[in-house]
Structures are given as structure tokens and as C-alpha cells.
Amino acid sequence: MSDRNDETFAAEYDALAAGCGYHSLANWSVVTLTGADRQSFLHNICTNDVRKLAVGEGCEAFCTDVKGKIVAHVFAFLLADHIVLLTVANQAERIVSHLDRYIIREDVQLADATLTQVWTVLAGDRVETVLPVQLERPWQIKSCEFGAVECLLARFPLPGRKAYLLGASREHVAELQRILHAAGGCACGDEAWTCLRVESGLPLFGVDFDSTNLPQEVSRNAQAISFTKGCYLGQETIARLDALGHVNRQLATLKFAESAQPTPGTPLTHDGQPAGTATTIAWSPRLGAPLALGMVRRGSNAIGTMLDSPCGPVEVVATAC
To answer: Exposed/middle/buried for 34, CB within 10 Å: 0-12, 13-18, 19+?
Structure first.
């Protein structure tokens, strides 16, 4: 968690909130799908309705195994001749292996594009002043040029923020960052980015949840799961949980007392019983307190619930943005 008195963090946070901040996702994984059956194949292997997407559109989705457990959490973009999957670091090989297992007669080719493509998060109230094109719909994606750099620009729907994702060839990243800086953008480090995503309620695979979790436990139902699309890998378990109406644990946003110093892994209790664990911690200037994401047991995760921790009281809250 950043020092609340850190001037650099404060400036970067302000840029991501009120200005034009950018953060490189240089180590994130990129997988591409090509071939005539790429869209229908991905539709049958993930939780969202990929089949309804038109070229220039995208969505958030989980790839699950036959038991409904999460294999990957991806941002998927449908382009004219391929699909891009963007996700956290060190996942490309795992995703390619998982998808390849289910290619039977489909015309689908998979490739790890991590070493050739880099994505950047742009956010802030002034971010659109530096954009060469305007995007109106969530997950809309277009090709564009920043100076002489060819890019892919996508609308990134973070609650309460103007945010975008910008993809470019790795060899042009330095030039792209120079252009963004010259246009008034502020390069932001890991702590400012972590604060942005915690305030926006955006969890990361391998940090806030993993392959032991079911999709509904990640609190992304509206963003990443279609309950009407029909059959897909793992759909039986996910549909059964939907009919049941709840899961036994779920990701929540947690507000600590201003003076608290929580760390990832801080245990949570409710009425003296284990209730969960904080996963990602950030100092939130907007709330003036440490804010966290954490996996919390059912019965203890309703907004307004007061929990206990070794750092003092903890309140389950809605996302800050």
C-alpha cells in the first residue's frame, strides 16, 4: 500500500482521476485467435456471449474448465481478421494450452502475442483530449494512429472513470509513451494503477482470485457472465449456482480505518468467526482510508457489514468510484 503522504503517488492518482494518466501493462499476456471459426469457438469456451459481438466490439469473460472453475479472466476484442484476448501476466501459455485442447475440427489458430504487443491503460477526466478518435460504447475498439504509431484503442468501462485500453507493437511503446507525455499525459506507477482498480472494483486473476474459484465468486456477473447464451464449457455448474441464488464466498470491497496498515492476506472475522481474507490493498485518497478487495464468506459480505481484523474494524462497502 502506498504511503498516504507520498507526493508522487498523489500526483499520479490525480492524473488517473481528474487528468490524463497512463499505466503500461507491459507484462500482461496477449493471445490471438484466427481462423474462420474463431468467434463461435470462443463463444463455446467462455462465459460471455461472444457470438453476438460485431467487429469492433469486445467483452469481459471467464474461461472455465468442465467443472466450472476459472482457467482465465480475459478482455476479448473482435477485430476484422482475429480476436485478441488480454489478461494478466504469465497466462498466455496456459490459455493457449487450455483452448487448444478443445479444438477438434474447428478452423481456429492460437498464438501467443505477448512478446509483440503491449497494452496501456489510460484514465482521467481529461483523457479524451489526447485521443485521435472518440469511442462511445463500452468495449468498443478501433484502429487509430497516435502520431505515426498504429494502435488499437478500446473503451474500458471502469465505474466512475473515463478509461481506455491502448494496444501497440512492443517496438513502438517508447514512442507512444513520448507522444502521450507530450500531450499532457502522466506516466503512473503500479501503486496508482492498483488504487484505480481497487476503487473500481476490478480484481486480477492470481491476485484476488484463482483457479480454485467459480466465476460467480468474483462478483463480475453483470460484466462477464451471460446466463442466457446456452451451452459452453463449465456452463452446467455456473447455471446450477445461478439457480441456487448464491455462492459460499464472494469478492467484496473493504474499507479499513484511516490509521490501519493492512497487508494482503490480512484475515477477516465476523462475530468471532473466520469471514475471509483481504487480497489487494490500496490507500484511497477519495475515501481517506485504506481500501481493499477481499474474498468474504456469505453472510458476512453484504454492503454495510462490519468485520474485524488485526488492523481494527473493516466495513464492506460499494466501490468508491
So the answer is: middle
